[in-house]
Amino acid sequence: MRTTSLLVDDDILVDAGTGVGDLSLEELLRIDHVFLTHSHMDHIACLPLLVDTVWEMRQSPIIVHAPMETLDILRAHIFNWAIWPDFTMIPDAERPALVFEPIVVGQKVVLGERSVSALPANHSVPAVGYLLENENSGSLAFTGDTAACDELWDVLNQVRRLSYLIAETAFPDAQSRLVKAARHLTPSLLADELTALETLPDIYVSHLKPGHVETTSREVESLLHHLRPSLLRQGHVFDV
Prior knowledge:
Layout: E1 6-8, E2 12-14, H1 25-29, E3 33-35, H2 41-44, H3 47-54, E4 62-66, H4 68-77, E5 91-92, E6 95-96, E7 98-102, E8 108-111, E9 114-120, E10 128-134, E11 139-142, H5 150-156, E12 162-168, H6 176-182, H7 187-194, E13 202-206, H8 213-224, E14 230-231
Parallel strand pairs: 2-3, 3-4, 4-7, 11-12, 12-13, 13-14
Antiparallel strand pairs: 1-2, 5-6, 8-9, 9-10, 10-11
């Protein structure tokens, strides 16, 4: 089972779940930026291992972009010397292996011809989604983990050339009580949310819980068939 991690070109990760484990050492060495949506383990699990694996072979730090609340959680509960070394102080404070950069909703980080912007999200911990744009082509939006969020669709409706949307649908409709508490989406809730989207990108559904994949995917197909959604698969490649 792999958890959330998207590799952008060869130098950016969006989230650092266990999918990072599929990358070779050479691929890990090329990663310069990690954009975290939030602090839950399925989205950060491989970040400590990533930096520990490559830091002595790099000439520059890995930069982690995330909401300040997420960075504070990483400092307090992961890179705290008790769970994992504090790589923001290794080898020393002047030459760290890891640098934390706060990001807020609406902020855009420009990396050459590409940019990564933080999108609104509504989750059980502070969270964001991300909009990935290439000035010469299209864009991809990733909701991250979120429940209903009107602000998200308001932002996406302003995006020119939105090519792809990756949206979460964690549980089937029968789990609506759990979904409400955990602030996720079901197929029915996602269908309601997408009525606010004025454009028609290619839609990919992600974050299906392993024990409910068959039921959730069947409900997605039934409720969203007019939008022709696809399930996001391990190893899928987007051309943006």
